[in-house]
Each structure stands twice: as structure tokens, then as C-alpha cells.
Design brief:
- The strands form 2 sheets. This protein has a 5-stranded antiparallel β-sheet. The protein has a two-stranded antiparallel sheet with strand order 4-5.
- The chain is 29% helix and 28% strand.
- The chain starts with 25 loop residues before the first helix and ends with a helix.
- With 172 residues, the protein is α+β, with helices and mostly antiparallel strands.
- It binds ligand GNR and nickel (II) ion (NI).
- The site of nickel (II) ion has 5 residues, from helix 2.
Length: 172
Amino acid sequence: MAVKTIITEPNPLLRQISKPVDKVGDEERLLMDDMLETMYAANGIGLAAIQIGIPKRIIVMDICKEENKKEPRYFVNPVIKNKDILKSTYEEGCLSVPNQFAEVDRPKKCDIEYLDYNGEKKILKAEGLLATCIQHEIDHLEGILFIDYLSKLKKSMIIKKLSKNKSTRIVV
Ligand code: GNR
Ligand code: NI
């Protein structure tokens, strides 16, 4: 397993639409292992493959709050079904939008159809943080970031800050 570099905004790769996986094989499982390790190393609760530069419809997540306890989840080709008309608000962050946080409204509950680590078809009924996080991750597969839901002003301020940080890093 290996920790990969997480791509950050602004970067056109993050706007790419990820491609469906046609078979969950060893290559995909190796990718999922690397993604999980990368996510844990960055203290994140979810990661989409495109965040490490691979445009495949693969997501890993672990929303378990207990320390020293791991509950990894793997989603291949996830599709959202039965979105709740009720919304819930969460303060979201993103490993590809470092150190920026903002409240986002999303459907409170949803069902997810996906293939698991072994390529078996599953359905998950999600609510709370699980529902928020999986929707945030599936947005990544469509090239959407949480900052896209903010006002133009808030979004442009965040992108400006991130661009500045990036150019500083090159200078130093
Ligand atoms: O680590 C993460 N935390 C988080 C908090 C609220 C809503 C969504 C997330 S996902 C984020 C990791 C990430 O960027 N996944 O794409
Ligand atoms: Ni994210």
C-alpha cells in the first residue's frame, strides 16, 4: 500500500468526469487500498479516486469516530437513488480544498447502489454524515466540489486563497 499525493483546487483534473469501472479486479482493489491509506494519512473521512488523479468511479470512506477503530467502506460505480426531499446542513471540508469549510445543504437521506470491494452489487440506505459524505464523494466523480454550492463571492475568495498558497509553496 502507498500514500498518494492529493490534488488540490485549482486543478483542472478535479473537474474531470470519472469513468465507470467495468470489472472490480486486483488493479481496482490495489487502488482502493492506496486510496484508503492516503485518506487515513490525511485524516479525511472520504476520498474519490480523482483526488489522487485517477478518473475512475471509485470512492473509499470511513466515518467511524472511535479512535483505533477502522470501518472502511468501498464504493465502485455508486449511483444515488431515492433522494430525500428533506435537506440537512453540514459544515463541509474537502481534502482537495485544504483548510476551507462551509455549510452545504444536501438531501438528508438517500440510497446508494454500488459494487463493493469484491465487485458484489449492494444497496446502502444512508442518512446523517454518511449520506452527506457519500453525496460529497459522488460529486467528485462528476467534477463537482462543495465550493460550487457557495455564492460566487465566497467561492472566488476561496479559490484566490488556494491559488496564493500554491504559488507561495513554489517560491519557498
Ligand atoms: O474529510 C472530509 N470531511 C468531510 C466533512 C464534511 C463533509 C464531507 C467531507 S469529505 C472530506 C474528505 C474529502 O475531501 N472527500 O472528498
Ligand atoms: Ni472532497
